[in-house]
Amino acid sequence: MNAPQSGIFALGTASHAYLEFDVRDKGAAPELLTAVAGLREPRTTMGGVNLVAGFRPELWRAVVPDDSPVMEGFNRDLVGPDGYTIPGTQHDAVLWLSGSAYDVVFDVARGAIGELGPVASVAEETSSWPYRHDRDLTGFIDGTENPGLIDAPDTAVIPNGDPGAGGTILLVQKWRHDAIAWESMPVARQEQVIGRTKLDSVELPDRPPDSHVGRTDQERFGEIFRRNMPYGTVTQHGTMFVGFSAEQRRLSSMLESMAGLTDGTRDALTYYTRPVTGAYYFIPSTEALRRCIGM
Q1: Domain count, the chain
Q2: Helix/strand/coil percentages in the chain, nearest 5
């Protein structure tokens, strides 16, 4: 049985870094896979770091065609009927590092960049941290509908027998908040936008159809496993969306619904937050990644 990369489910880490890379030479995809696979993952200890690695699906498929799920990169912008745009900023590889403190994450990230430097350059870098335990920077609890750790692999991991078994599909996006507009609204209006109460995250019985909960209803689109985190500075910040699924369609359908492509109704939250990056990555199983060493 192929095992997923353990860092996907390593909850409770306080510091995060997301590094996206572009290969320096388009013909060097095998070398990139080998270099990423060769990174040594420190074990999770009090001072350890979790490392999750993934690849542009087209790049992985070109090198490992027999172990590739049905998916594609975020190669085109998603444009709603009113012109609202969810950008595709696809890169070739991603590293997500998480640990107990940012100093160890920082050191491991620098080391990884150095190891990959001959074959790939950093195209996007973001650091994240928890806010008030489990809230995002809107002040609402994030991940209320997340499956528990026992059920999360069934949601996120591609099952045995399917191409890419033991791996998962990652959607990573940076959503920048309009904090002034959001915080100028009374809590009751914020709750209508989200579709939940702010204090304890109870779903509103009369949630509006354009509420964020309504537009991303997992009973409709299928469950995903989210590892979202706040990012940014005091003056410019937002949410790093980190969503895993065994099927890409669950993720893409939610984005289409948020943009209003399904019925012309846009997610009310998108009037207060704007995506500035977006990429899909295949996160191979540990066995598949190990096979890339020496490729």
Answers
A1: 1
A2: 30, 25, 45
- Tens of pLDDT, residues 3-15: 999 999 999 899 9
Which structural domain range is residue 35 located in? 6-291
Q: How far is CA 248 from the centre of its chain?
A: 12
Sites in the chain below the pLDDT cut of 70: 40-47, 294
Q: Does residue 122 fall inside a structural domain? A: yes
In a domain, 197, yes or no: yes
How distant, in Å, are the alpha carbons of 140, 179, 219 from that of 134? 8, 18, 22
Neighbours of 101 (CB within 10 A): 13
CA distance 219 to 202: 16
Largest CA distance in the chain: 58
For the record, the structure tokens of 89 come out as 């900023």
Q: Which two tokens stand for residue 269?
A: 């939250």
DSSP assignments along 121-156, one per residue = EEEEEEEE--BTTTB-TTSSBS-TTPPPTTTHHHHH
Q: Evaluate if pTM is beyond 0.85.
A: yes
Of the residues 142, 151, 200, 263, which is catalytic? 142
What is the rounded end-to-end Cα distance, in angstroms, of the chain? 22
- Report the distance separating Cα 233 and Cα 231, nearest Å: 7
160 within some domain: yes
| Active-site residue flag, 267 | no
Q: What is the CATH number for 176?
A: 3.30.70.3420
